[in-house]
Specification:
The protein has about 130 residues and is α+β, with helices and mostly antiparallel strands. The chain contains 3 helices and 4 strands, in the order αβββαβα. Helix 2 links the parallel strand 3 (about 60-65) and strand 4. The mean pLDDT is about 90. Belongs to the RnpA family.
């Protein structure tokens, strides 16, 4: 499970990441990344994601539609994606918003395939090629 301070919950935050962020598509998923606009003052740290002007940890949210499968399959895909993103939070810049949208093939994919697609998408979005 993702730590509380790393969860994306508000509809407005999802919309910001999807509409104003960059997108990288892969066969199993699409990743939207919205990086923080400007670095906050040095020495300012908080875990409140809604506090203005301070360093917030990266936050991630997931979109798994009914096209992916039934409720059991959707929840399984969501759990796998949460686990994968949790292990990659340290790669994300502070204050960034990430939305991972699963595509229909994600329910039939194994853990390694999802990890490969997520890594490739994050590399592309963070400027490491892909």
């Amino acid at each position: 499970m993702l730590p509380t301070e790393n969860r994306l919950r508000r509809r407005q935050d999802f919309a910001t990441a999807v509409r104003r962020g960059r997108r990288a598509g892969r066969p199993l998923l699409v990743v939207h990344l919205r990086q923080a606009a400007s670095p906050p003052p040095a020495g300012t740290v908080t875990t409140d994601p809604h506090a203005g002007g301070s360093v917030t940890p990266p936050r991630a949210g997931f979109v798994v539609s009914k096209a992916v499968g039934n409720a059991v399959q959707r929840n399984q895909v969501k759990r796998r994606l949460r686990h994968l993103v949790r292990d990659r939070l340290s790669l994300l810049p502070p204050g960034s918003l990430v939305v991972v949208r699963a595509l229909p093939g994600a329910s039939a994919a194994d853990h390694a395939s999802l990890a490969h697609d997520l890594d490739a998408a994050l590399r592309r979005l963070l400027g490491g090629g892909g």
